[in-house]
Amino acid sequence: MMNVILKKNIMINLTASILILATVYILQYFFNMAPCDMCIKERYPYYIIGILAGVNIAINSNHLIKNLIIKILLIATSFFGFLYSIYHVGIERKFWIGNAECSGQSTALDIEALSSQLMNTPIIRCDEATLLFDLVSIAELNVIAMTLFLIFNILVLYKKI
Predict the structure, then answer these.
(1) pLDDT tens digits, residue range 94-133?
(2) Domain regions of the chain by residue span
(3) How many Cβ atoms are within 10 Å of 111's Cβ, its own excluded?
(4) pTM of the model
(5) Which CATH class is domain 4-157?
């Protein structure tokens, strides 16, 4: 039988990932809140967490090393998702400049290069926040979610939850 703490952790991670992904797809397809390129990449940790949870449920063992590896992978995924979200919020808040493909910055020196750059630039820019309720950006909410995932998974690693 799988460790009860890990089993609860896996179910919480899986459920939260599914709910967050469902929410962003509802915002995208039913409320026309189109994501930028970075917003789409911010979904990857949720997919990875879901896959890790699914694999862990399918294997369902009480092997100590496997359980430790799953916990560490959940922490690492949450950590990298947190860092990427912080980076995106920094671009939205103009703390730093993102790459040229995802911002309004032009590096073109001639008309052909400018035309090519404009044709390859996404319509939704990463340096313009998509606000929810005109209050908080989706990227800022993602920072909060990834922070909670990270804290939760670290606490589970040390069996505090």
Answers:
(1) 888 766 556 555 555 667 766 666 556 556 666 666 666 6
(2) 4-157
(3) 8
(4) 0.79
(5) mainly alpha
